[in-house]
UniProtKB/TrEMBL annotation:
Enzyme class: oxidoreductase
Gene encoding the protein: Aoc3_0
Cofactor: how and how many bound: Contains 1 topaquinone per subunit.
Family matches, as Gene3D superfamilies: 3.10.450.40, Copper amine oxidase, catalytic domain
SUPFAM superfamilies referenced in this protein's UniProt entry, alphabetically: Amine oxidase catalytic domain (SSF49998), Amine oxidase N-terminal region (SSF54416)
Region (Disordered): 289-310
Name this protein carries in UniProt: Amine oxidase
One term under GO cellular component: plasma membrane
Molecular function as annotated in GO: copper ion binding; primary methylamine oxidase activity; quinone binding
């Protein structure tokens, strides 16, 4: 062996030893911390999106101070106000008229003045009423104007106002006083003196306009679990419409299929042995039906998404940007999430996308259940969007945003971390192809999307509101229902209205119908509505005339009038329905966006019902109307307590006006029928309980815009697919060889209860 060979072997040996030492030294060492890289800069906004922004706590406080000093009446804090007092019910942003906003955003016009909408309950007046004021300009208000008559055609009667927390407290006190009149019955039926029973409201409240008479359902209340699954069979009807609380009365009592005039009469029937009492033991601890406490110790952590180089989206003030998308977001305390000025690649696709209402309509053979039609906007879909639980409600590393509101108080409140933004990997290709003929290659793109999410807890139910933005230029809107089912006491023919889910618990059938407003501006404000569907035609084979073939062909139609574009719920609808611009794409087709609905809605309330007009939006799975500034919402918070003379009637929006080359709005209803079953205990699961719709580009582009995605993957048979330069997936092992910096887990969601 010569010296040169020996030196080479020595060098190789030293290199091997060095490599082994490196492995031994690094084995067991935790990965390094991920180094965040700021997302690519999107088009500058210069604060323009703030024209849609929710009011800040400082602005809310300024509006309250202005109203206190400039209305000339005494205002009582709504948290303490009696029905006979004047109070501020709520304050929210007054979004400027669309024409003003577009002049500012697109035409270089002046920024519209920032204004608030204040709702006041005037109980201390000769003619008690609800009045709405626009207050401005912010941040230092100098004027207010009454807009009630302009919006609603007259003053809003006082009985239509939503029930406040203080009113519920006073009702509960009345019920407790009445329960004390039947101590022996309560001890026998429920092992209770009444003070530990939970009380659940129903709605609406009566049979005719002006009524304010509500059934309240009583349940066993056990701390740390949902009482909704433990009815005791007792329900009471309370009349609470008088301005003077002392005149409120208990009007009727229901127990186990029987009605009584008072709790005293119920007690007398019990003592006279004229009442069939079902003795229900008070639930104890873990034995209670519906406990969510874990039954097993924690296991190993599940998979968790993280961003090796930090978020690829940006959240600034009320604006999110992500790979060509730009969205302004907000939260209405009544109706919930609202998005504005949704753009893709700099072009506005949607001016407004907002939740309008969530209806839950029940069936039962108990009075509370059979009369319940919850209009959740009147309770506060946005107000009750509480803090999200990091790592469960949203990914641990999502961006969490606080929302501020002022409802039934003179002091602004904050639901911290109540809206989240994150990029979601669906673990599914957005598109892909493996070529095994002619030439051999693979091309594809992961289905990653931006998600904006909030979750509202409305009494027993939790609604998960998702707005998703895809690399293909498509938008997806989805709602999932979870939480506790509502229930009735099982008696008689109760299973005609649901399933038994506990010893004395009937899971009552109900429907969830959700309504959205979508103001599409496809390549400009002026759009038309086009439909496409298939039919078959029987034709002779051109190459064999003695034979025939059933050939599918495309039937195209342009709808001219609103009546043509009002599609009844659950009725057949054209499979392709698009908002079309007058401008063509490269291939000569109108640039369009398609509305695609995914829904399993129940049956709408019969139009013969005296309260149907209050939810007449539910007649239609889709209705397209001309956009009008005086038709901003499909319903009103005042419809809940007076559905017989509704303040806003959506059906009146459809008056057969032209929808050709006009500014159009799509009003979309989605929903599902829910027949509760054993597996809804303890909670309804989200699996199968999600509905929504897509807004998909249809000839809007000249090709799929996702081809420009930097995440695209392509490699051929002649390339080394494991080389980073040839395949970006091969870059992942070194890029992801780090640990995310997780913030400590904290939760403050119980602060505003």
């Amino acid at each position: 062996m010569n010296v040169k060979t020996a030196l080479i072997l020595l060098v190789l040996a030293l290199a091997t030893i060095f490599a082994l030492v490196c492995v031994l030294l690094t084995r067991g060492r935790p990965p390094g911390t991920c180094q965040h890289r700021p997302p690519e800069q999107e088009d500058p906004d210069d604060g323009q999106s703030l024209v849609f922004a929710d009011l800040t706590p400082e602005e809310l406080a300024q509006v309250v101070r202005y109203l206190q000093g400039n209305l000339g009446v005494q205002l009582v804090d709504a948290s303490r106000a009696k029905p006979s007092d004047n109070c501020i019910a709520s304050v929210d942003v007054q979004v400027p008229a669309k024409a003003e906003v577009l002049r500012f955003l697109d035409g270089g016009g002046a920024r519209p003045p920032r204004e608030a909408l204040a709702v006041l309950y005037f109980g201390n007046q000769p003619d008690p009423n609800v009045t709405e004021y626009v207050v401005g300009p912010l941040p230092v208000p100098a004027y207010h104007r009454d807009v009630t008559v302009r919006k609603y055609g007259g003053k809003v009667p006082y009985h239509r106002r939503p029930v406040t927390g203080k009113e519920y407290m006073d009702i509960n006190a009345l019920i407790q006083r009445e329960l004390r009149k039947a101590p022996r019955f309560l001890a026998a039926c429920c092992e209770s003196d009444g003070t530990d029973l939970a009380i659940l409201t129903t709605a609406p409240r009566g049979f005719k306009s002006g009524d304010r008479t509500t059934w309240f359902v009583l349940f066993h209340g056990v701390a740390g679990t949902g009482y909704y699954l433990s009815p005791v069979g007792l329900e009471v009807l309370v009349e609470h419409g008088d301005l003077h609380i002392s005149r409120w009365q208990l009007r009727k009592v229901f127990y186990n299929g029987q009605y009584f005039a008072s709790m005293g009469d119920l007690e007398d029937a019990f003592e006279s042995d004229l009442l069939e009492v079902v003795r229900i033991e008070k639930p104890q601890g873990e034995a209670v039906l519906g406990s969510l406490r874990p039954r097993r110790p924690p296991g190993s952590p599940g998979p968790m998404p993280y961003e090796p180089q930090g978020p690829r989206y940006s959240v600034r003030d009320n604006r999110v940007t992500f790979q060509g998308w730009s969205i302004a977001f907000g939260m209405n305390p009544n109706t919930g999430p609202r998005l504005f000025d949704i753009r893709f690649r700099g072009e506005r696709i949607v001016y407004e996308l907002s939740l309008q209402e969530a209806l839950a309509l029940y069936g039962s053979n108990c009075p509370g259940g059979m009369s319940t039609r919850y209009f959740d906007g009147s309770f506060g879909i946005g107000r009750f969007a509480y803090e999200l639980v990091r790592g469960l409600d949203c990914p641990y590393t999502a961006t969490y945003v606080d929302r501020h509101y002022l409802v039934e108080s003179e002091t602004p409140k904050t639901n911290q971390n109540s809206l989240c933004v994150f990029e979601h990997d669906a673990a599914l290709p957005l598109r892909r192809h493996f070529s095994d003929s002619h030439s051999f290659y693979y091309g594809g793109l992961r289905k990653n999307m931006l998600v904006i999410r909030a979750v509202s807890t409305l009494i027993n139910y939790d609604y998960i509101w998702d707005f998703m933005f895809h690399g293909s230029g498509a938008m997806e809107v989805r709602v999932h229902a979870t939480g506790y089912i509502s229930s009735s006491f099982l008696h008689g023919q109760g299973t005609n209205y649901g399933n038994r889910v506990g010893p004395h618990t009937l899971g009552t059938m109900h429907l969830h119908h959700i309504h959205y407003k979508v103001d599409l501006d496809v390549d400009g404000q002026l759009n038309s509505l086009e439909t496409q569907d298939m039919e078959y035609e029987l034709v002779k084979d051109p190459w064999s005339m003695q034979h025939t073939i059933e050939r599918p062909y495309l039937r195209r139609e342009r709808l001219e009038r609103e009546d043509e574009a009002a599609f009844p719920l659950n009725a057949p609808m054209p499979r392709y329905l698009s908002f079309a611009s007058s401008k063509p794409n490269k291939w000569g087709h109108p640039r369009s966006y398609r509305v695609q609905i995914v829904s399993f809605a129940g049956e709408h309330l019969p139009t013969s019902s005296p309260m149907e007009r209050s939810v007449s939006w539910g007649r239609y799975q889709l209705a397209v109307t001309q956009r009008k500034e005086e038709e901003p919402t499909s319903t009103s918070v005042y419809n809940q307590n007076d559905p017989w003379t509704p303040t806003v009637v959506f059906a009146d929006f459809i008056d057969n006006e032209t929808i050709t080359d006009a500014d159009l709005v799509a009003w979309i209803t989605v929903g599902f029928l829910h027949v509760p079953h054993a597996e809804d205990v303890p909670n309804t699961v989200t699996v199968g309980n999600g509905v929504g719709f897509f807004l998909r580009p249809y000839n809007y582009f000249d090709e799929d815009p996702s081809v420009d995605s930097p995440d695209s993957v392509y490699f051929g048979s002649e390339q080394d697919a494991g080389a980073c330069r040839a395949n970006s997936l091969a870059c992942l092992p070194p890029a992801a060889a780090c640990a995310p910096r997780l913030p400590p887990f904290r939760y403050g969601g119980f602060l505003n209860l």
